[in-house]
Amino acid sequence: MSTTTPAPAPSLHVSGLAYAYPDGHQALFGVDLTVARGERVALLGPNGAGKTTLVLHLNGILEAGAGSVAVAGLPVAKGNLAEIRRRVGIVFQDPDDQLFMPTVREDVAFGPAAAGLRGAELDARVTEALTRVGMADFADRPPHHLSFGQRRRVAVATVLAMRPEILVLDEPSSNLDPASRRELADILRSLDVTVLMVTHDLPYALELCPRSVVLSGGVLVADGTTQELLCDEELMRNHRLELPFGFDPRSVTVPR
């Protein structure tokens, strides 16, 4: 008698998520979103759309007013927050919000050490994370001696050291020179984690994320391939999304 192996839970499942801030402002209205394991998805939308509010629900910083969020099948709820925050790694827009230890090595070790790793196992975890972002040779350098692009890669390593299920990136390409932007893109493509990228940089979303969703006014208004969405002039105009002058999304070979 054959048995069927159940399909793995998606990395992220958001169902009917609604949230109002204490001042009464309703930021999210019944958002539904499912992201499969290993997908790279861009979260697009104008300022004030609710993108940050949604992200803050993914690791329990905000508690849903209605609906639910689950990460790899585990509900985002009070009793699960320690594990949820290991599974959902957020890389902030400014790496200096994330790096605070005297050396790169100590910054990357901080999370795993707080989780109980010690000795050779901790050292191996730090080396693994720094190698994945091409920063192993900088382990003993003070973070403030690094370039902005290098600090952003170290910030990514601090999250990868926790071996997350989902890597959430807030405006990852901001303030990067062209070489650093390309290097980070190469790193992100090489990772075997689910990526949710919050960005206004539409060409970067097209380069890295086969799929995009558009959040506007607290409502998920579009979900499709990034190229299709960026070619939808009415959608773009209605939700204040603008491509750089002269950039044609139809001319780009999209990732798979």
List keywords for this structure.
single chain, 256 residues, alpha/beta, Rossmann fold, six-stranded mixed beta sheet, four-stranded antiparallel beta sheet, 10 strands, 33% helix, globular, nucleotide-binding, ATP hydrolysis activity, ABC_transporter-like_ATP-bd, membrane, P-loop_NTPase
CATH H-tier superfamily: P-loop containing nucleotide triphosphate hydrolases
Q: Count of DSSP E strands?
A: 10
- Largest sheet: number of strands, sense, barrel closure: 6 strands, mixed
Mean pLDDT over the residues: 93
What string gives the helices and strands in order? EEEHEEHEHHHEHEHEEHH
* DSSP helix fraction: 25-40%
Strand order of the largest sheet: 6-7-8-3-9-10
Question: Terminal Cα separation, in Å?
Answer: 37 Å
**CATH class categorisation:** Alpha Beta
Fold-level CATH name: Rossmann fold
Output the number of helix runs.
9
Structural class by secondary-structure content: alpha/beta
Q: Per DSSP, what share of the residues sits in E-state strands of 2 or more residues?
A: 15-25%
Cα radius of gyration in angstroms = 19 Å
Q: Which descriptor suits the 3D outline? A: globular
**Stretches with pLDDT under 50, minimum 5 residues:** none
InterPro entries: AAA+_ATPase, ABC_transporter-like_ATP-bd, ABC_transporter-like_CS, ABC_transpr_CbiO/EcfA_su, Co_trans_ATP-bd, ECF_ABC_transporter_ATP-bd, P-loop_NTPase
GO molecular function: ATP binding; ATP hydrolysis activity; ATPase-coupled transmembrane transporter activity
Domain ABC transporter: 12-242
Pfam family, one: ABC_tran
